[in-house]
Amino acid sequence: LQISGYLNLLANTIDNFTHGLAVAASFLVSRKVGFLTTMAILLHEIPHEVGDFAILLRAGFDRWSAAKMQLSTALGGILGASFAICAQSPKGTGETVAWILPFTSGGFLYIALVNVVPDLLEEKNPWNSLQQILLLCTGITVMVLLSLT
């Protein structure tokens, strides 16, 4: 088995931990914010997990081992949610949410910008760049519309 598979599992576990933090902290704010955060993370995670599964297969895992290992990384999300709930201040959820949501949001923005912007700058076909920018704007518009309801 290649080391890349194990590195991917570690990164996926850390990613799932931050997702758990974000979901739990969002539900501490309100049920609406919690459901919106959960939906956004689910939409992000479905293609992400499929890609991680493919990475594990290329690293030498068989299908069953790759599936079990992918499932085990989900424990990171449970640990993150548990950590967010246990980190609640006796003074209320405001202090907990005051650091968890900015921390996870900043991490997500950093990862998105590190992955997306260099690809956009290296793209030779302007039509592909325009499509990616339009889809990015569509995603932002959907988030804004969902936050208004």
TrEMBL record:
Q: Which GO terms describe its molecular function?
A: zinc ion transmembrane transporter activity
Provide one Gene Ontology cellular component: membrane
> What's a Pfam family in this record?
Zip
Which sequence ranges are marked TM in the entry?
A: 69-87, 99-117, 129-148
Q: Which UniProt keywords apply?
A: Ion transport, Membrane, Transmembrane, Transmembrane helix, Transport, Zinc, Zinc transport
Q: Does the keyword DNA-binding apply?
A: no
Q: Principal place where this protein is found?
A: membrane
- What is the annotated localization of this protein? Membrane
Q: Which InterPro entries is this protein grouped with? A: ZIP (IPR003689)
List, in alphabetical order, the GO biological process terms annotated in this UniProt record. Answer: intracellular zinc ion homeostasis
Reaction catalysis annotation: Zn(2+)(in) = Zn(2+)(out)
Stated membrane topology is: Multi-pass membrane protein
Q: Which family does it belong to?
A: Belongs to the ZIP transporter (TC 2.A.5) family.
Write the protein's name.
Zinc transporter ZIP13
Give the encoding gene's name: Slc39a13
